[in-house]
Amino acid sequence: MTGWRLPDAAATEAAGAALAPLLRPGDVVALHGDLGAGKTSFARGALAALGLAEEAPSPSFAIVQAYDPPDVALPVWHVDLYRVEDADDAAELGLDEALYDGALLIEWAERLGPRLWPDTLHLSFEVTPDGARRLTWTVPEAWEGRWPPREFRPA
């Protein structure tokens, strides 16, 4: 299977929750898709499954929202690069620092251009004509055997 149909926001969050136990320090997950395609819902699902009690805000204005234990099981930076115009500007965010002991969930990751890490898991979200989401992926070697999770089946 190369993709899933996610009928609603709850299914998109459930797919994110399926990612959470697979995350390891040093992991980068790029979330691609147009505005409203489900990137933030997916990230919220992952963060909730990692233990975040409140709903994660979209990092659109903050650009980086960092979560650390005990709020989450693994340090995660939720990043939204929509407002970043130049990959060189993103270098100032210190994203490499998060990878020492945590993971990155990056919306609009394509704005990093060649600065995007080669072992990044690429997840692409697309709105279907009926309003559902289609999630497809590109799996690098570092993620083989981890993604897609075998136990998750979309609704």
From TrEMBL:
Its main location: cytoplasm. One of its GO terms (molecular function) is ATP binding. Coiled coil: none annotated. Keywords: ATP-binding, Cytoplasm, Magnesium, Metal-binding, Nucleotide-binding, tRNA processing. It comes from Edaphosphingomonas laterariae. The keyword Cell membrane does not apply. It holds the Pfam family TsaE. The keyword Protein transport does not apply. One of its GO terms (biological process) is tRNA threonylcarbamoyladenosine modification. Belongs to the TsaE family. It is found in: Cytoplasm. This is tRNA threonylcarbamoyladenosine biosynthesis protein TsaE. InterPro entries: P-loop_NTPase, T6A_TsaE. It comes from the Bacteria. One of its GO terms (cellular component) is cytoplasm.
